[in-house]
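Please check our next protein.
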Amino acid sequence: MIEEYQDKIPAPLLEKYEKLTKDIKLTKEQEKKILERLEKEYSDAKIDPGESIGVVTAESFGEPGTQMTMKVFHFAGVAEVQVTLGLPRLIEIFDARRTISTPAMEIFLHKDYSEDVKFARNIASQIKETKFREIVSSFSINVLNLQVECELNKKNIRDLKIKDEEITEALNKGLKGINVKLLNKGDTIVLKPNSEELKDVYKLKEKAKEVFIKGVSGITQVLPVKQGNEFVILTAGSNLKDVIKLKEVDESRTKCNNIFEMQEVYGIEAARNTIIEEARKVIQDQGLDIDIRHIMFIADLMTAGGDIKGITRSGITGEKESVLARASFETPIKHLIDASLIGEEDHLSSVIENVILNQPVPLGTGLPGLVVKMAGEVKNEKSGRSTEKQ
């Protein structure tokens, strides 16, 4: 029965049908009825030739977008880790912004580490970025000796499994040209600048607080959360390149919400999937329903050239073939003057330019040209001239 419908219904739909009906005993009549219904649903979902899919997609996003809340910060019901949602996030995605307001990651672990909460917490503590201020109880300035004295928090150092050599090495690397000394059996660190100016000592104190000591740079918060039978580490901040180097991390599933990071590490197809997934997440979170094909269409458009382009005047819109289409978006005078200087032609092949010129749009009913077939001749009695008969 399935073989009959192989040319009518796509293979993935037939595979899904087989999977769902594997354990159900269906009669031939029932099977035929289901497959006929599936074929009808698939046929109804097809787009008509000449459909203006760009306009429909824009409208499908524009109308629900007006119902969105302007600013939302949360992450799947977890208050501790915040990410931007709602309209600002949608704008971030489609503008293809390199720097996003709340980068986040979902770090999946290999099976040996993901089922034990102790393992997950231990790995999370290794991933979290540790700065010098987090392992210091107090900073004080010795005005007489022109130096900064830092009293270390031994408990935090033990919990984070940091050695004294690692601290001094990180400080020497992060504060170049500074003398670093360990005093009182490793309880105090003294930082002395080469300068004799008091203002430089104050500057050194503030700079020392932000020195990177251990972990993965950029990961400011970590939170192990149980998802199904395994623990997943959610993070605030992202650094995909360095996180997947850890042997405990499953790089095949770990992802972040920064499209450009995903492209850099996994490639353009992964970036396309991230655009689809992130946009879908925002829309669903708001309780809205937009056909997945509209989201896929925008993601394809943004990544078709092999790199990510935003829907901005410097991205996709700026690359349109039509001068009038570019001018209708932003900075019209600039586009029109530039086009006139080089004698650019507009072939009026899309929607906007034809609307501007009050012409039929080459889409839908305006797409086909009518061809009339003539047959035979009919003599016009009044004029005596012969005309072709339709």
About this structure: The first helix runs from residue 11 to 21. The first strand starts at residue 72 and ends at 73.
